[in-house]
Amino acid sequence: MKLLSLAAAMLALPLVANAQVPSGEALYEEHCQSCHGVNRLGAMGPALFPENLKRLRKGKAHKVITKGRIATQMPAFGAKLNNDEIASLVDYIYTPEANLPPWGEKEILASHVVHFEQSKLPNTAQFEADLMNLFIVVELGDHSATLLNGDTFEPIDRFKTRFALHGGPKYSPDGRFVYFASRDGWISKYDIYNTKTVVEVRAGINTRNIAVSSDGKYIMVGNYLPHSAVILDANDLKPLKVIDVTDKDGKSSRVSAVYNAPPRTSFVVALKDVKELWEIPYSDEGGVEVLKGWAHDHRKDVGEGAVENWKSEEQFPIKRIASKEFLDDFFFDPDYINVIGASRDTKDGQVINLDTGKQIATVPMNGMPHLGSGITWDYQGKQVFATPDIKDARVTIIDMDNWKVIKEIKTEGPGFFMRSHENSKYAWVDVFFGPNKEKVHIIDKSTLEIVKTLAPMPGKTAAHVEFTKDGKYVLLSIWDKDGAVIVYDAKTFKEIKRLPMKKPSGKYNVYNKTHYERGTSH
Ligand code: DHE
Fold first, then answer.
1. Using a 6 Å CB cutoff, which residues line ligand 1?
2. 376-397, pLDDT tens digit by residue?
3. Where in the chain are the domains?
């Protein structure tokens, strides 16, 4: 209803700004709507309103439409649209929309759908398999997912998902449930034991990603639209708290990403439009008291009044850590004490200590590291962090003791995803962008050299790997509508099996994900 009335209101807007140039709205509908959604509300692409474009000047937006945006699915329109048309589009997306549909607790609750009563379903798996060695494969090609047996590599179930899932699905700590987020805000809970989607809720209009708490009780959802972070009850997906995301001075922001920090029993939230990083403890045991002690020393950063507002009984209080730059992406060190953050606007990564709230180092990276898919391992007695770069052809290896870059491994193109496993000598990284997108490099973790490059399906993007629970096999995606998941022996790199799949974007092993295996994404 809300969306319909918004559409009606928008139809009443004047359409023609200049007789020769079609209106920005008409151009939007023709060229942008299929990805950015009806009424600019976001779909595969982000929502496009001035509130969401604060960090992008109009001139830069013009350039992005003309040339495309690196590391996204945004194509170049320079050959299709002339300068005036692009300017008209830019004006349109910077036009405020007075009737943005609200998406608060009421709307979230109203969207709630129960497909199956959880209490009526059996509590044991209705199929034979090692429940820790299962994979969920997200298939973007037809908006489905496959539940795969990680020993036999046979599918157990294939089911419809919401449109355009993005980010890794997250498991409950016992591995029984998996939670998905779609770009348009739907959160779905799938019961693996019973192969059923049991409950769904729409927690936002344009969502970033989700995190599951270590006790399995809460789901945190980070949104682009509205500017909110939503905490759901993991059991029934009902909203427990909707947080309007603003900095200490009340300036609002999109959420870049939310992650769980297991030893801290907290969610950490990176903000896109304000220079703050949030930590939100979810443990029932004294989280607020601990934070009060911390905040006392950081009054300036936290904001006057915030401390007093934390009541002992308050669930999910916010610890605000001032950051020097906006944070678009981040990664934890293995002890979850430091966060390495990166911003699209700066070349250096920043290391922020979550305990002191201080930036302790910068890491010269000179590109656009894809920190979220970084991994760590032991190298010559120290711990190193490795990240692909979505702008430059390299993998950067960083010493985690002193945050110095110890090596840049030249690759055949910018990469998106990187993976390894405790039991494997090798790390795999894709070449997602450019003419070599069909290739995947295998790096020896002890020499930091590429030892093998595979190109399993010429011309088709090979990307995103995941290991089996024991690290013996590697599953690689061929990102094509008629794509595949290819299983390799992790030692010999010999192909074991090819499973046809519809653009399998990512695959997620229950054991590796629930045990926060160092070689996988968290
Ligand atoms: Fe992703 C994860 C951000 C574009 C496929 N991507 C993530 C995460 C973030 C992120 C913050 C971690 C969330 C999590 O797992 O909880 N992605 C961004 C962007 O900012 C960017 C560059 C622009 C955007 O459109 O939002 C972007 N991502 C893409 C794509 O274009 C990809 C290739 C195709 C798609 O699905 O749209 C893509 N992103 C993925 C995948 C993951 C992901 C498959 C999960 C990786 C994992 O192994 O955990």
1. 71-73, 140, 166-168, 209, 257, 329, 372-373, 416-417, 464, 505-506, 521
2. 999 999 999 999 998 899 999 9
3. 21-93, 368-522
